[in-house]
Amino acid sequence: MKESVGTTGLILNEPLLWERGKKGRSGFSLPRRDVESCPLDGALTGEGPDFPDLSEIDVVRHYTRLSQWNFGVDSGMYPLGSCTMKYSPKTNENQASLPGFAGAHPLLPAALSQGILQMMFELEQYLAEITGMDATALQPAAGAHGELAGMLLIYAFHKSKGERRSKIIIPDTAHGTNPASATLCGYLPVPVKSNDRGILSIEAVSEVMDEDTAGIFVTNPNTLGLYEEDIRRIGEVVHDKGGLVYCDGANMNAVMGIVKMGEIGVDVIHLNLHKTFSTPHGGGGPGSGPVCVKKQLEPFLPVPRIVEENGSYALSNDYPESIGKLQAFHGNVGVMIKAYSYIRSMGPKNLKKASQLAVLNANYIKEGLKGTLHLAYDRPCMHECVFSDKHQMAQKIATIDMAKRLMDYGFHPPTVYFPLVVHGAIMVEPTETECKEDLDQFIEAFKTIAKEAGEDPGLLHDAPRRCKVTRLDETTAARKPCLAG
Ligand SMILES: *Cc1c(COP(=O)(O)O)cnc(C)c1O
Questions:
Q1: Which tens digit of pLDDT belongs to each residue from 161-181?
Q2: Staple partner for 44: which of 40, 210, 265, 420, CB 3.0–4.6 Å?
Q3: How confident is the model at residue 67 (pLDDT cuts 50, 70, 90)?
Q4: When comparing pLDDT for 167 and 30, which is higher?
């Protein structure tokens, strides 16, 4: 294999600032005092906090080094399945930093916030168009928050009809947050198994759908990276018994501009702006998980809603059936600005192309690695493909060993051991922003690792070897983190 992009040399050790500090050292020098010294009064003369004494260069080097120990999508390929870790163009960050946006205060009256309200109003419409729905609410702060909003909307819908249903159908290929959101809303999740093709069957849903079931919660494309081909007919089964169809649209990166969810029977969908629409996912936020709904759910959307009249924008609370407010002020507006800028700069044609390339890249990796790794479902995939460690088990090599070794070759590991329906899953989502050369190098790295598994398994059991920290006891690392490095 060609030289790996993994680092090999000049890895600096970094002590704590407390270990580095030296009494009397300082980041600046004041001119000699030319007045009498004057003691400070009581409260200020006690012992100060135990801060280390450091020079400016000590501090700059310390934080610069720490920043270089990090790995992000700006440093290399990050094929973390179900997370859409694609490169987000910097121009969208620039628009979010424009002084008119960045300096806007959420307590300013609508008359002084026309630009930002117009941006949000138009973004709502763009997202409705992309999903094929009728209305959007931007408030939810994350995907799971959008799910909760959607569940509350479904609850409010049934309540308005004088009904109180107790269950929600959730396939085994759903994202883990789906049953959690349904449960938070008071629903009992009813599991349903996917079929041998990795998708839902109409029969399986018909079997469990009844008049006490509020609806179905489908992740589409699902967490196996497969498109739910029968979603339209499944929607009919659910609608026939008075239920609604919730689509977890966090995987929209596979189908933007290609599938209009509203036209295939979906009643409510959330999107992850911090995946698909130019905000990086992870790192603890901020995020944005708007919900898009069909007309019948619009009266229940969270307030305040942005309304437009004769070209001027205002916030309205005049929605008596609303589920209420979900977020402080308007949600995470910076993320919305980036999404707006991304959608406007891409245009409909290129949004579609981004999805097509995301699907192409995932299929390229699937084909490139399918002899090397066991492929859980050997059929065309959407934006991600799911392998397993089945072929390596005889060599006593597990998914975790291969994932750790991948770091030595300069790649962030894929998502592992998820989805749960595949034992030892390795879930790869390359996204559209990786070029063919990088995909080839990723495939090559995995092939080399598979070869090592046969020839020198110790290399994998000890991996990663070229990283700052080698194999951790993950349980202890999580429970008793040692922050001293
Ligand atoms: C990421 C993801 C979520 C959760 O989104 P958060 O913003 O992390 O809450 C839900 N469903 C799917 C399919 C996802 O990929």
A1: 999 999 999 999 999 999 999
A2: 40
A3: confident
A4: 167
Greater confidence (67 vs 373) lies with 373
Residue holding tokens 């006490």?
212
On whether the 349-477 domain is CATH 3.90.1150.10, my answer is: yes
Q: Is the CB of 441 under 6 A from ligand 1?
A: no
What angle (nearest 5°) sits at the alpha carbon of residue 405, between those of residues 401 and 406?
A: 120
CATH number listed for the domain at residues 90-345: 3.40.640.10
Q: Determine if ligand 1 sits within 6 Å of the CB of residue 287.
A: yes
What pLDDT is attached to residue 272? 97
Q: How far apart are CA 462 and CA 395, in angstroms?
A: 15
251 C-beta closer than 6 A to ligand 1? yes
Largest Cα–Cα separation, the chain: 90
Q: Which atom of ligand 1 is nearest to the CA of 82?
A: 15
C-beta of 271 in contact with ligand 1 (< 6 A): no
What is the reported pTM? 0.91
* Amino acid residing at 11: I
Q: Is 288 in the pocket of ligand 1 (CB under 6 A)?
A: no
The minimum-distance atom of ligand 1 relative to the CA of 174 is 13
What are the pLDDT digits (tens) for 308-363? Answer: 999 999 999 999 999 999 998 889 999 999 999 999 999 999 999 999 999 999 99
Mutate to test the pocket of ligand 1, among 145, 248, 272 (most ligand atoms within 8 A of CB): 272
Q: What is the pLDDT of residues 236-259, one digit of tens each?
A: 999 999 999 999 999 999 999 999
* Closest ligand 1 atom, residue 289 Cα: 7
> Considering the chain, what is the average pLDDT of its residues?
93
The minimum-distance atom of ligand 1 relative to the CA of 287 is: 7
d(CA 471, CA 463): 6
d(CA 457, CA 461): 6
What average pLDDT does the segment 391-418 reach? Answer: 96
Q: Which of 175, 224, 228 is the pocket-test mutation for ligand 1 (most atoms within 8 Å of CB)?
A: 175
Q: Quick one: how many helices (H) and strands (E) in the chain?
A: 15, 13
Cβ atoms of 422 and 389 closer than 8 Å: no
Domain boundaries, the chain: 90-345, 349-477
